Amino acid sequence: MHEGHRQRMLERLRDPEDSLQDHELLEILLYACLPRVNTNRTAHELLDAFGSLQGVFAASYEQLLAVPGIGRAAAGHLKSLSLIFERLRSCAPKEKPYVFTYEKLFRFVEERFAGRETEVGELYALDSGFRVVGKRSFTSHDTGTVLVMTDEIMKFFTEFHPQAVIIAHNHPYCNSTPSSADDDFTAKMHCLCSLNNATLYDHVIYSAHGIFSYRMENRLEKILDPANIERLLSRQERT
User: Fold this and answer.
1) What is the pLDDT of residues 195-234, one digit of tens each?
2) Confidence band for 239, pLDDT divided at 50, 70 and 90
3) Of 27, 64, 106, 171, which has the fewest beta carbons less than 10 angstroms from its beta carbon?
4) Are residues 126 and 55 in the same domain?
């Protein structure tokens, strides 16, 4: 009888419209560690003891052991899940600025890069409403360079189909003034954006001394001058 009931409960997970109650979710969760027990009853015992799902996963190992029907295996199972949830929350990426403004972008970039000891590059995808719809990070674990392969950038375009792109990276141990390599990468990204019907909107560089914006400093216009792009492409062909 248990097997038939459990199978029916598992089938309910297939239907996103079917709202499983808290005790039913706990019931299913306990199948793995209580194979021959009526876990519906045990689930109710847990909720009676701790008041809610949040209370169950906040309980200590010893508190879980005190609940009728919960042995060492079930207490360990629930406590390990609680620790996993806690670690996932702590390592979750910081929220992207939903609608682009420079104030939000600079605050976000500072949160992303402050204290980093290696150089990291990121691409932000914006849609036609200037909403940030995707992000991709790159690093070579070097203090002075970021190696970004063209095929990785193309995956970024394929996944997010951006209307506009913003580049961001950090200078861990110097000011935010762009290097010649930064200029070259900006020009390269402009070419790749054009191939993918997107606009390179800006390239910002973070350092502990401040944030540099190519667009705000009028450097973007100079870098994207057709004559400069042609010089870059010819130089790449020679190398």
Assistant:
1) 999 999 999 999 999 999 999 999 998 888 777 667 665 6
2) very low
3) 106
4) no
Q: Is residue 60 part of a domain?
A: yes
- Do the domain assignments include residue 96? no
Put residue 161 in one of left, alpha, beta given phi > 0 → left and psi -120 to 50 → alpha. left
pLDDT in tens, 154-187: 999 999 999 999 999 999 888 999 998 898 889 8
Residue carrying the six token digits 């360079």: 145
3-state secondary structure of 30: helix
pTM (2 d.p.): 0.56
**Phi, psi (rounded to 5 degrees) for 121:** -115, 145
Look over the chain and give the mean of its residue pLDDT values, rounded to a whole number: 83
As given in the structure block, the two tokens for residue 87 are 């670690």
Residues ≥6 apart with Cβ < 8 Å to 104: 97
Structural domain containing residue 115: 102-238
Nearest to 217 by CA among 180, 176, 160, 163: 176
Neighbours of 13 (CB within 10 A): 11
3-class secondary-structure state, position 88: helix
Q: Is pLDDT above 50 for 143?
A: no
Task: Give rounded-to-5 percent helix, strand, coil for the chain.
Answer: 50, 15, 35
Among 31, 63, 91, the domain boundary falls at 91
> Per the structure block, which two tokens stand in for 80?
């390990």
Nearest CA-CA partner of 211 in 98, 103, 101, 94: 103
Burial class (CB in 10 A: 0-12, 13-18, 19+), 208: middle
Q: Are residues 214 and 107 in the same domain?
A: yes
